[in-house]
Design goal:
Distance between the termini: 30 Å
Oligomer: single chain
Structural class: mainly beta
């Protein structure tokens, strides 16, 4: 896939989850990411770490984050850092509900990953670093 062309991602996170989420890409023997319509579906397990054989796609992407309860009901999760024009210091703020913070990608020893934090922010729910 050419750099810059990125498939939208739908992140399904267990309702009530707080903490770091890590998606590890290109893991031999792990299952590929399924699709729903035009999006890759990333179903985060209760421990927050998902390993997939799918390749990491780099570039601008549309992320959609949802809490999913036991019945499959989805509730959207805010991503304040995506709206820098409205809140340039979003990562340092405290929220009254869990939000997505600190989304980043990386390469640890040639191991590609995405990581983000679900929580209320530094004062209400300190993320620390995994």
């Amino acid at each position: 896939m050419p750099r810059g062309h990125v498939t939208p991602c739908m992140y399904l996170i267990p309702a009530g989850f707080t903490g770091w989420v890590t998606i590890e890409f290109a893991v031999a023997g792990a299952p590929p990411l399924p699709r729903a319509g035009d999006a890759r579906v990333i179903t985060v397990p209760p421990d927050g770490t998902l390993r997939t054989a799918s390749a990491q796609e780099l570039g601008i992407v549309e992320h959609r984050f949802w809490f999913v309860d036991a019945e499959g009901t989805r509730m959207p999760i805010d991503e304040p850092e995506a709206h820098y024009g409205a809140a340039p210091d979003a990562a340092s703020m405290t929220y009254d509900h869990p939000v997505v913070l600190g989304f980043h990608t990386g390469d640890a020893d040639r191991h590609l990953f995405e990581r983000f934090y679900i929580g209320a922010g530094p004062t209400g729910d300190p993320p620390g670093w995994p």
